[in-house]
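so the lab meeting is tmrw and i was supposed to have these ready like two days ago... anyway. pasting both below. for each one the top line is the aa sequence and the line under it is the structure tokens. i havent really looked at them closely yet so no promises
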Amino acid sequence: MTDPFDILRDRLVAAAHATSPPPRLARPRRRILIVLVAALLVSSSAAAAVVSLTGEDSQPLTGKVGGKPGAGPSDAREYVIEMLPSLSVGEAGWCATLALRHSNGQPIAGGEGCGPAPPAAAPQIVSGALVATTSRSGKSVSYIVVDDRVASVRVDGGRMIIPRPSAAIPSGWKAAVWFTAGGAAPAMPVLLDKAGQVISTEPNQRAGTRAAGTRRLATRAVDPARAPHQRCAIEVPSRAGLRAASERVVTETPAHEPDVNGRAFRACAGAVIYLAGRRFTAAVLVDARNPSHQAAALPGQRPHPGAPGIVEAGGGITARRAGPGWLVVRGINPAQRLRLLHALKTGA
């Protein structure tokens, strides 16, 4: 790998795999640095007064943040924010990762959180922050991904951040990234439309519910070496150094077409696999609304430089098409991800 942020990303993925899954909603624990990554489900009043939309442009999803050198978290110089589909089997949702490292390349902190795909009426997709809680000389990094209805985001002290599109997030959505002084958690962002009116986030409360059709579907365990011959199943061959620890497949369909904002994905099969002692997650992702439709491009998708038909995507993912969906592999080592992707089969 030649991109230094790939190394930081891989370390973040490894750390996430070494711990228990994060909560669906942010429940911060007090530490020197804490992470908040989740869809915010706090509604805003839609009757707020019109305000000016002049403001500052969003920071990029990958960049540098200032701080006082030699002061621990405040020496955070570089950050990277990535978005990816949830790989939890049966769920239609999104995840996001945020990581910081020193200017000398040493990782400082990072985290990941996931939440259900929001309904079409919900303007907010996912948000989070990496917060320097004990040093005002340090900088906290916050972000929010929103749809095209949001023209600006009001944050701490009345600052107005103008969200911008990015190739790292799905088409039609935008991200606002901003820095604040450490010492306290950032205030809840407020979303504003082009007229300066507050956009209610109350529709986000339907995310992940039966009414929205995005609750987690029922699954069953299967033998990865003898997986069902169906599109949403992963066959793991018996090879030296390759061991499948578990696999689950979805056993039901939503009662009605799910209500989702944009082109969300649902993981209809997933497996935990070890290759040369390293842990990887494999999943089949399909279109959340209609699994028979071709699934959208993955966030941050780009062609693999040495493997035709293979793509790399945000969050440490290597993938290829499997019928109308995607077969994806996530893990710390890109070369091993590619090797594993070539070895796996689906019924598509």
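ok protien two:
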Amino acid sequence: MPKPSNILVVRLTSLGDVLMSMPAVKSMKDHFPESRISWLVEGSVGDLLSSQSFIDEVIPFPRGRTMQALKRGRLGLAGIEMSHFLKKLRKDRFDMVLDFHGIIKSTLLSLCTRGGKRVGFDRMYAKEQSHLFYHERVEGHDRRLHKVERNMLLPCHLGAKGAVPEIDLKVSPEAAAYIDRYFEMEGISSLSPVFAVNPFSSKGSRFKRWDIHRYSQLIRRIRNNRPAQIIILWGPGEEDEARALQKDGGDRVFLSCPTNVPELLALMKRVDMYIGGDTGVMHLAAFARTPVVAIFGPTDVKINGPYSGQSTVVRRELTCSPCKNKACEERKCLSGISIDQVYDAILAMGQINRRI
């Protein structure tokens, strides 16, 4: 196979899935060091990609701005947004387009590029019949293969057959300075460990959340038994719950500053442990090489667990788990996880990380 000189990677969302695609992209850059790699992506995770040395260009898909224009009835503005985007997407001819996303939207965007062999997954991993539009399809053999290892099948297909490379995520100076100011303003000391606690999940994923009252009890348990400072993470629509949790936690419990993805990475690099459920932030902490205690409910840990040697997963083994029943009312997989179990996992992780 001739070496490609210009490669387009397509993985639009979400934070966790973008992160779990990065080792595969790094593997391609290592195998084809002279190749130019561009990445088509949505949202502020693109700002994180822009700071990584193995990615030469980030092409943002303006979904947010386009949808806002359409909701306001400004069809002309939406058309201008898409026109500018397509012009940027088509300014270069790609030798190869690698679709890690594997849905119709990513396929349609791939079809908008100039030239290029389209490579993606076969029907086992691709969705919405998107595999029908690829020139080359990479077969899967295990439905429960971890997404990091699944994504590695694409560079392996192209000849990059090495081990999963380690990713050293780079923090932009602006993001690092922003978090430095936050620590200084809040009086968060470097003399005692700092735990980041994320009791929330992305919109539409509340079925993955451990009970917030248990998070409250866990925070008090940590505060009563460890010389730790705790930062409660939150996102859009979660601030009120986070403030109530902070108030209930007492002294040395802080509310996180508002963050975008690069700033959140800078924060993960500053804390000594991350505690939370199956979210993109969990994966960001794992890729930041921060010790992780992950609380898993219905989602499949074999596919979506933190890909890190400094992590432990707390879950309850049930015959019905993993599952995708978002309407489940019993949620035994989460309600059956006790505060003691999570606290013991934190202690065990602390024994590995001597600072905690």
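from a quick look at the 2nd one: The domain at 173-352 is CATH 3.40.50.2000 (Rossmann fold). The chain has a mean pLDDT of 94. will dig more after coffe
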